[in-house]
Amino acid sequence: MSRVRVRFCKLGKVRWTSHRDVARMWERAFRRADVPLAYTSGFSPRPKVSFGLALPTGHESLAEYLDVELAEGSAGDAIAADLDGFVTRVSASLPDGVDAMAAVAVGPGTPSLQEAVTSCTWQWSVRPDGGGRLDGPALAASVARAVAAPSLTVTRLRKGLEVTDDIRDAVLDLRVLGPVTGTPDAVRLEAELASQPRSVRPGELLPVLGADLEAYDTRRTHQWISREGDRREPLEVPEPAPTAPRALERAS
Fold first, then answer.
1. Could you report how far apart the first and last alpha carbons of the chain are, in Å?
2. CB count, 10 Å around CB of 219?
3. Residues 222, 154 share a domain
4. For each successive 10 residues of the chain (252 residues), what is the average pLDDT?
5. Does the CA dihedral 193-66-101-2 come out positive or negative?
6. Which residue from 157, 156, 134, 116 is spatially nearest to 209, judged by alpha carbons?
7. Residue 75 has what pLDDT?
């Protein structure tokens, strides 16, 4: 039985599709592309497809991942031997906005994506909430203070209850990329945020940057595995990502 890791993107209107519905999209795409999947045993067999960290609804991504197990036999072996062709076939069966970008065989005993990924890089834009003029220097100063602060306390909703957390250790990097092209009252930010032991989302940084800010156009650009000084992606693709033609058009 072969296990294959797939990197894919999620761009455009499909960003409003839930994580569960994206999983269904992939199952349908595998069927359309005649991919021989391995199934669980039991009363209701399910294809052995496991996804990485869930992407919040409304966010885009250039770096989503799934692991799929192929059924034993010549058909599964043929796919494992031609992963580029597998990527092309599956991409053609996916809806607009979701594209397979690369695939690689995964060896036995490789940790799951949920266990392995330790942080994510995000980019997003901020603008004044309700309109008005953005004070760029003041925002840059707020970012600098946040990076230098020993603690960053925010109140988050968890299981219906408000909980106060110090998220400073989860903010691994935070910077201002510059103004948003064509939108003078908006600035693009980038951050690397930890996903373990508890994940932090870009929008949760707004209270420490300014109560009057609104976040939009949020995109996950990378997921990282960091172990003993080694830092890498679960599956690297040549820059600039994404490489799939349809995805490249939407990302430009």
1. 38
2. 22
3. yes
4. 90 95 95 91 88 94 95 74 91 95 89 93 91 83 93 83 89 93 88 91 88 90 90 79 43 44
5. positive
6. 134
7. 65
pLDDT for res 143? 93
Amino acid found at 236: E
Q: Which two tokens stand for residue 27?
A: 């199952």
9 domain residue, yes or no: yes
What is the phi/psi pair of residue 155, to 5°?
-105, 125
Q: How far apart are CA 103 and CA 29, in angstroms?
A: 15
> Which SS3 state, helix, strand or coil, does residue 118 take?
coil
Beta-strand (E) ranges in 22-91? Answer: 49-51, 60-70
Q: What is the DSSP letter of 203?
A: G
- d(C-alpha 26, C-alpha 114), whole Å: 18
pLDDT of residue 195: 93
* CA quadruple 212, 186, 168, 218: dihedral sign: positive
* Those residues with Cβ within 8 angstroms of residue 6's Cβ, 6 or more apart along the chain or in another chain: 65, 66, 67, 68, 87, 90, 100, 102, 103, 235
CB burial of 57-66 (b: ≥16 within 10 Å; e: otherwise) equals eebbbbbbbb
Q: Which amino acid is at 135?
A: D
Helix, strand and coil content of the chain, in percent to the nearest 5, comes to 30, 40, 35
Say if CB 50 and CB 37 are below 8 A apart. no
Domain count along the chain: 2
List Cβ neighbours of 48 (8 Å cut-off, separation of 6 or more). Answer: 37, 38, 39, 40, 68, 69
Domain harbouring 159, CATH code: 3.30.2350.10
Same domain, 225 and 127: yes
Q: Output the six-digit token pair for 17.
A: 């599709």
